[in-house]
Structures are given as structure tokens and as C-alpha cells.
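Team,

Forwarding the record for the chain on the shared tracking sheet. I've put the sequence and predicted structure together so nobody has to dig through attachments.
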Amino acid sequence: MGTSSLMDMIGSFAIGGFLLLMCLRLNAQANEAASVYNSNLILQQNVTTAVSIIEDDFKKIGYCRDWRKIPDPSRALRIAQPSRIRFWTDVGNDGTLDSITYWIGTAGELASTPNPRDRFLYRQVNTTPFTRMNLGVSQFAFQFYDAENELLPFPVTDPRLVYYMQISMAVESGFPITQEYMVDSTQYEVFWRQIRLVTKNLRNR
């Protein structure tokens, strides 16, 4: 075998190896892109689920089919805290006055995922056992405003002053896709905010 043929073989192996590395890299990038897409899709679905439940409840704050059960809408809110709210409503639209409470759990309680920030979102109707939603919620916060659109400082000792509220919620992926997850979570986070949530029953005074 001549020197030329040997050099040709070495060159062919080198080019083949280079092409193989390129294929492997492209495949890895495609898999990572698919994982990121699927993760973002799950986050969007989780946010949609949480928002649909929250908005359905919150738009009925102070509502009861039997209006005589809550003649004073200013008393619809019972607790107005940074990450906890309780209010009167009529869950089944049957004329029965119900109490709904929302709050977020503590960091680290969701031990089934490696994300140190995600928590359970809790919902309780009256004194029945609470519902614990595992949607990757890492932030669930309120701001409350009076009739003059002035921000009410915490603690809000008199919920009757609340006319408007702002809800902020962040949902994060429970599992990392790349190592950057532990440093920068923003690429695996979906943020939702309802600015100036107006519940007509709170304003009907």
C-alpha cells in the first residue's frame, strides 16, 4: 500500500469522524430543544389550569345566589395577606354562603421534585379537607388597593377597605433540563399577573 493510499485512508477516517461528531452534536441539540419545548408546554398547561381555577373563584368574590346571606359586599374579604386570601362566595350557586381560602405552601415542601422553589398551591372550601395543587407554583402573591387606587400596606387589618387587588403567580419546571437550571430558572419559568382584578361585588357598596 502506497503512501498516497494510506494518507487517503487517514483523511477519510478524519472526515468521517468529524461528520459523526457533527451528527451527534446536532442530535443532542435537537433532543435538548425538544425537551425545552415540552417543558415549556407543560408550564403553559399548568399556568392555564391554575388561572382558570383562580379566575373562576375570584370573579365571584362576595356573590351569593341568596343575596340576603351577604348584604354587605364590603365584608366579602375575610383575610387579605401577601400570600393568603379568604373570602365569601357561593361555590355551588345554590344560595349557600361558602368560605374559600387560597395560600401557598413553604419552600422545600414539594420533595418530589429537585426544584427548591416550587411549592404546593392550596385551596380550601369551608372546613372541608384542602386541595393541594402540584403545578410548580413558586410565587403566589397579592397586592390590595383601596377605592382611591392607593396601595394598602400590610398587614391589611380591615379587608373592607379593599376595592381592587393584583395577583402575581410564577410557575417553574420541577425538573432541570440542563445544568443552568439551578443558576438561572427564568428559562423554565412562566409568569402570570392579573393587574387590578375588579370584582363587581366588592365595588357594589
